[in-house]
């Protein structure tokens, strides 16, 4: 986020690198897309860099976290705990993950709130109406793909 986008938080937020942030954070909450750049963003090295009292939260995409490394880190106390709503090889879990007492595991329901699901339904309806009228869906993920039909 750029400084001019911080609004009321300007002056209270400090930009630091991933490597600087990990050892300073009590909670690391992931909000990134799945891509080659984010695959195993949280690996054994990242987990080792975190505080032993830190909690990792992944509601982004499963492959962002190396679950095998996470299980090891949770078992040996490298970090204190983890909360996951997505999994590396969904629906399968890494061996040992479900048995750990320092995890909270959800069945990929992070978006299951009335407001989020209502907005999702509204966007779908808006797209369907636009297409039915012969137009382009206003929320097309990849408009260029339509040129290759």
UniProtKB/TrEMBL annotation:
Organism: Rhodococcus rhodnii LMG 5362
Keywords assigned by UniProt, alphabetized: Oxidoreductase
Single GO MF annotation: glyoxylate reductase (NADPH) activity
Family according to the record: Belongs to the D-isomer specific 2-hydroxyacid dehydrogenase family.
UniProt KW Oxidoreductase keyword: yes
Name of the molecule in the record: Glyoxylate reductase
Domain of life: Bacteria
InterPro entries: D-isomer_2-hydroxyacid_DH, D-isomer_DH_CS, D-isomer_DH_NAD-bd, NAD(P)-bd_dom_sf
Pfam family, one: 2-Hacid_dh_C
SUPFAM superfamilies: NAD(P)-binding Rossmann-fold domains
């Amino acid at each position: 986020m750029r400084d001019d986008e911080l609004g009321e938080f300007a002056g209270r937020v400090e930009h630091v690198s991933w490597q600087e942030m990990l050892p300073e954070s009590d909670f690391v909450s992931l909000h990134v897309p799945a891509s080659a750049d984010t695959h195993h963003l949280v690996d054994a090295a990242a987990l080792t860099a975190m505080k032993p009292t830190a909690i990792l939260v992944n509601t982004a995409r499963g492959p962002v976290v190396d679950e095998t490394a996470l299980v090891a880190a949770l078992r040996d106390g490298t970090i204190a705990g983890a909360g996951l709503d997505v999994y590396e090889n969904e629906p399968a879990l890494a061996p040992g993950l479900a048995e750990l007492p320092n995890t909270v595991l959800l069945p990929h329901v992070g978006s299951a709130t009335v407001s989020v699901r209502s907005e999702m339904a509204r966007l779908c309806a808006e797209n369907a109406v636009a297409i039915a009228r012969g137009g382009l869906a206003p929320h097309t993920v990849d408009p260029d793909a339509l040129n290759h039909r």
